Structure formats: C-alpha cells, structure tokens
Amino acid sequence: MASAAETGCAARSPEILAPAGTMACLQAALDNGADAVYIGTDAFNMRCGASASFPRCDIPEASERCRRAGARLYLTLNTIVFEDEIAAVDELVGEVCGVVDAAIVSDWAALKACRRHGLAAHASTQMSCSNSAAAGFLAEAGFSRIVLARECSLDEAARIAASTGVEIEMFVHGAMCVAVSGRCLMSHEAYGLSANRGECRQPCRKRYLVRESEPRSGDAAEFEVGGHTVFSARDLCSLPFLPELMKAGAAAFKIEGRARNPEYVAVVTDAYRTGRDAVLNGTFTPELSAKLTEQCRRVYNRGFGPGLYFGRPGADQFSADGASNLATETKSRIGIVTNYFAKPRVAEILLYSGGFYPGARLLVQGSTTGSVEICAEAPLMDGVPAAGPVPGGSTVTLECPVKVRRGDAVYMVAARV
Known about the structure:
Elements: E1 15-19, H1 23-31, E2 36-39, H2 59-68, E3 72-77, H3 86-96, E4 102-105, H4 108-117, E5 121-123, H5 132-141, E6 145-147, H6 154-163, E7 167-174, H7 186-191, E8 208-212, E9 223-228, E10 235-237, H8 242-247, E11 252-255, H9 262-281, H10 286-297, E12 304-305, E13 329-341, E14 346-351, E15 360-366, E16 370-376, E17 380-381, E18 384-385, E19 395-399, E20 409-415
Parallel strand pairs: 1-2, 1-11, 2-3, 3-4, 4-5, 5-6, 6-7, 7-11, 10-12
Antiparallel strand pairs: 7-10, 8-9, 13-14, 13-20, 14-19, 15-16, 15-20, 17-18
Helix pairs in contact: 1-9, 3-4, 9-10
C-alpha cells in the first residue's frame, strides 16, 4: 500500500474546523484561529440530546460573528430522516440557506433539500465513505466535501484524496466511537434513545464485565473481559503525526466536541492552528508537538491515541480502566464579572463562597466573551493590593487585557489531583 508521502501530496493548508455547542464556544473558536465552525440546531443533528445545540433564532448571529472573523459556518443535519420528516428537513434547509456556508448531512433526503435550495452539502462521516469509488459517487450526487469514515487509515485517506476531485475532511482530535463511524445501537438498546437520532446517552463509557456464558465447542470454558471501560475508546490526538496527516491532502481538519466546554474549544483549536501553521512554515518539531499535546491534556480527554490512522482497533486504543476524564487541569466556578473598565483594562469580580490566592489562573467565559484566561497577579480589594488569599464573598478588581462583560462566569483553574 502506498504511503501518504508516496502519493505525491504536498502539505496544503487545511481548514481548521472547530466545534461549538454554545455561543461562548463559537466565540472561543474564532478567537483562537478557527477557519470554520460547525454547529447544530434543535433538530436532525447528532448532538440534539446533549444540550449542545443553537436555537434557530441564534444562527444568524453565529453566522455574522463568523463572517466578521473571516470564518465559515456549517450546520450539522446528520441524523437519519424518516418519511414524515422530509418536509421538516426541507423547511430547515430553506431557513438557513444564505446564512450558513454548508450543511453536513448523512441522509439522502437532506442532500436533496440542499440541492433544491442551493446550499452546499458535506457528506457526514455517518455515511461511512471509506474508498475512492464511494467518494466519486458522492461527488457525482452533489456533495462538495466528504468527511471520511473514521475507520480509514492515513494511507487510505491519502489515496482517496489523491484520486478524487472532491474535498476531503478528516477528524484530527476528540472522542472516538466504538461503533462503525458512530452508527451505534447501544444507547437505543440500553435506554430506548437512539444515537442515530441525536439522543446518545453514551453507555459505552461505563464500566462493564463482558462474559461468554455459552462457549462454542473447543473454546475455553468461559471467556471474560472486565470489569472496566471495555467499550470506551481513547480520544484521537493527531498532533504527534500532524506533518504526515497534512501530506494526505485533506481540505479540512475537524475537531470533535460540540458537547465540550469553551476552554476545550479554545485550547484545542489553538493547538491545531499553531501546529498546522508550524508545518507550513517549516518550524514544526517533536518538541513543539509534545508541547501542543500537553496543552490539549489540560482539558477534557479520555487519554490520547492515534485513532485508526495506523491500523484497525486494538486493545491500546481503549481508555484506561474507569477513566472518564484525564484532563490535567480542573476548573471551579468562583464568581461573576460585575463590571469592566475599558480604559485601564480592569475587571471587577464578585466572588462567591470560594476565593483564590494571588497568582491564580482564572477563566472568564460568556456568550460574547468566549473564553478568556487571566492571571490574577495583583488583585485589589477596595483599591488595596491583597496581602494574602482573597476570601469568598468579596469584590475584587484585576488587570484584564481582553474585554469581558457583566454577567460573565469566572472560574479558577487548578491542577487536577
């Protein structure tokens, strides 16, 4: 099999495509260099049940923010569509046509609606496109971009990209599903809530004891695995092999995580934007790769692995026993912004019951602010420098070089113990 390098694909500048489940996440993505953002709304998206969807009335504002930042906006319409929902899909596509740049779809009815309204359509990974023949067929059907199946190896992705004239999008970071391209029935069997309808409750992330109670002839008397997270895959992290990934010729690098928080979006988007630019200008090194990977470990993760880019599933691609979050840092909400003074660049913060020490790292998050990190080096209480810990219940002012807003939530960041 030809390697990515042997296909002759030079490294190009792939779009950094970031997820957003809230307006704060969208702003965090734009502030940290995303070229495009993908969101979902109240219907027909695979995160409908995760409280990670934009109300339809907010999509125009999301679009305007992206346009001001020179970024594109995509809407996910990637669930299956039943017979009595065809008209609803068509109506939704008509609503967003001219507002979003493309729809990410997995059902042919959604593609038909996109074609009727003149909206660009990207084939979702749920369509399991894993070869060049399928990619060519999807392009002929009207797709302008194809998100490859998560099961494709790096070499296979490079060959598909080189042999088709359609744009190829590849996942580079985030959660991996135990099922084929995410088409899982486990949540439906356990809870009556279908992953293919955006209702997944992620039973795969729980601990299990798997036992074969009726072995076939010649097998061991009993086969047993567990009890641990035997179905929970490690998160994908492509930073260690980003140069090889870029040689594959993808038009877009996709970060998973529409259900994640603003700091996840900010930290991971920044890491991949920095890594991509370093590859392009020839400054990408193993040391930078390690630094960016550690940066991503700060936020939510289930442990990192290469996904399926270098082979089919193996035992090393599953998360550590019982691990649901291996982030090296944690955050706790400690207060709220009550004012911001633009000229001196100072934020006024009302603390709740918990306080902080001078020098603490704080996160300020809000729908307009996004996610801003500040260092509380010299907090003032009543205009006087705090001599020791700042107690809960007090009002404090801090230098804050980036504008924040009244009502923004304030969190303290600390190492996870």
